[in-house]
Design a protein that fits this description.
This protein is α/β, with parallel strands linked by helices. The chain has 2 domains: 2-99 and 226-245, Udp-n-acetylmuramoylalanyl-d-glutamate--2,6- Diaminopimelate Ligase, Chain: A, domain 1; 109-223, NIF3 (NGG1p interacting factor 3)-like (Udp-n-acetylmuramoylalanyl-d-glutamate--2,6- Diaminopimelate Ligase, Chain: A, domain 1, 3-Layer(aba) Sandwich), CATH 3.40.1390.30. It contains 10 helices and 13 strands. The chain is elongated.
Length: 252
């Protein structure tokens, strides 16, 4: 068991949220019971995840996407009331870390996505250094962007969107999990032959075709499934807690 304040201190020590300009509060978003023995991790604090955590007898939930975001109207109605009511009724703590979890160099979403795909990080780039630049761990270039896209699709077990005009071998790969499509130009400036992220917006298809850098969109949720369980498992092992990752399927 660990106390809520001590667990918060441990999470903050690893993720250093004070270093980031973010879109919502990082840390303890909903206060629950004081003593914590089991953590459930997930991508998003959806009602389905909260209900699954209740069934799993969790004392705390650790997620990437919390409940509160800049620009919300602040009213506790509808879906917000339903999620908060479940957390409060069952006295469950909710910890959420957004950009700090993306950026952690070993346990974060980007580092873990690269690990899953067999990519070695050589540098970080872009605003707040959220993007990663690297190459295949075996040092052998992908024969084509299609070969890289096939690898991503196989590992994440879902179809991907590939825009590839140049059709050349891929030596340097850049990636930024989630909604990182705005990092595409920074990835090109960093020398990437291909860029992987969760989503694609209309302008990126044109940029990929005109600039000869392949763009692969593999799903926001799919690209961010690895950071939360990696970090929560690390902390659970460090603090002698039980940990369970619950993946709520999301096609986005």
């Amino acid at each position: 068991m660990i106390s809520r304040p001590d667990l918060l201190t441990t999470f903050n020590g690893l993720l250093q949220p004070e270093r980031f300009r973010d879109y919502g509060p990082n840390g303890l978003q909903v206060e629950g019971r004081m003593e914590i023995g089991k953590i459930v991790s997930g991508v998003t604090a959806s009602r389905a995840l909260i209900e699954a955590a209740i069934a799993a007898h969790a004392d705390a939930i650790f997620v990437h996407h919390g409940l509160f975001w800049r620009g919300q109207d602040g009213c506790v109605t509808g879906w917000m009331k339903q999620r908060l009511a479940l957390l409060l009724a069952h006295d469950i703590n909710l910890f959420a870390y957004h950009l700090p979890l993306d950026a952690h160099p070993e346990l974060g979403n980007n580092a873990q996505l690269g690990l899953q795909l067999g990519l070695v990080v050589q540098a970080q780039f872009g605003e707040q250094n959220l993007g990663c630049l690297g190459q295949p761990a075996n040092g052998i270039a992908f024969a084509s962007a299609q070969a890289l896209a096939d690898r991503v699709s196989f590992v994440l077990n879902r179809p991907v969107v590939l825009v590839d005009q140049a059709q050349v071998a891929i030596k340097k790969v850049a990636w930024c999990s989630g909604g990182g499509q705005s990092y595409f130009e920074a990835a090109m400036a960093a020398g990437a032959d291909a860029f992987i992220t969760g989503e694609i917006s209309e302008p990126q298809a044109h940029l990929a075709r005109e600039c000869g850098v392949a763009f692969i969109a593999c799903g926001h949720h799919a690209s961010e499934r690895y950071g939360a369980p990696a970090l929560a498992a690390h902390v659970a092992a460090q603090c002698g807690l039980t940990h369970e990752f619950i993946d709520i399927d999301n096609p986005a």
